[in-house]
Amino acid sequence: MQHLELKTEGSLATLVIDRPEKHGALNPRLIADLHEGLDELHQEPRVRAVVLASAGPSFCSGVDLSVLQEIRSLPEQEQLQQWFEYWRRFSELCETLLRFPKPLIAAVGGPAMGAGFALSLSCDMIVASEEATFSAGAVRHGLVGGITSALLSFRAGTSLSARISLAGHAITADDANRVGLLCQPPVAPDQLDSAATYWANESSQGSPQAIQATKRLINESIGETMLTQLAAAAADSATACTTESAGEGIDAFLNKTNPTW
Hints:
The chain is α/β, with parallel strands linked by helices. The protein has one domain: 2-enoyl-CoA Hydratase, Chain A, domain 1 (Alpha-Beta Complex). It is 52% helix and 13% strand. It is built from eleven helices and eight strands. A five-stranded mixed beta sheet has the order 1-2-3-4-6, with helices on both faces. A three-stranded mixed beta sheet has the order 5-7-8.
């Protein structure tokens, strides 16, 4: 796996996003690595819980906009297919996390932005350091962050989802804790690993069958509508990438300028 490190200690495994030079941005290779790592851990009976973490100062900065720019350089008839493929694979990754039979703990030590925020929301629990922030600013780049919005609505309600998704403002770890997104108050950066390990151990004390059934009840039965929304959100996000405003927003971000809508 090129951008993912898998570590196992006893019954606990950790998947570490290893793309610090790009702040953990999700390119197709990283998405494929995450699928591969989850599949490997799914098949490992000794692993009872999994922590999703990241190397470097950011948890995950979201979609890799340089990849989106590369797709925009393709012939027009090929672009839409590539947009749909990219967002379909990311939607499938979130669904794989939601359907994963073992407890998943997101250890967020820095910014979790857009699709990176969605990754953390797809886990069962989130622990965060005092340096963590959470944001969904796709609209500021002319894009549609429908997958993140759907997951945030499921976890915390549509009011918070609307405020974060439309205004594009980041919330602090303290804010995230106040609205119930974290399983404990934020910790010092050097305590993040131990906090994630604590919750991973605590959430894996029940029988594997009962844990899997409980996760299925929460994420598939109660969240049945949300799973349907993920596929629709992926299509909406792909379609939005074809617009002129998306091109303007992506170029402005990469050139460090302000878009003009």
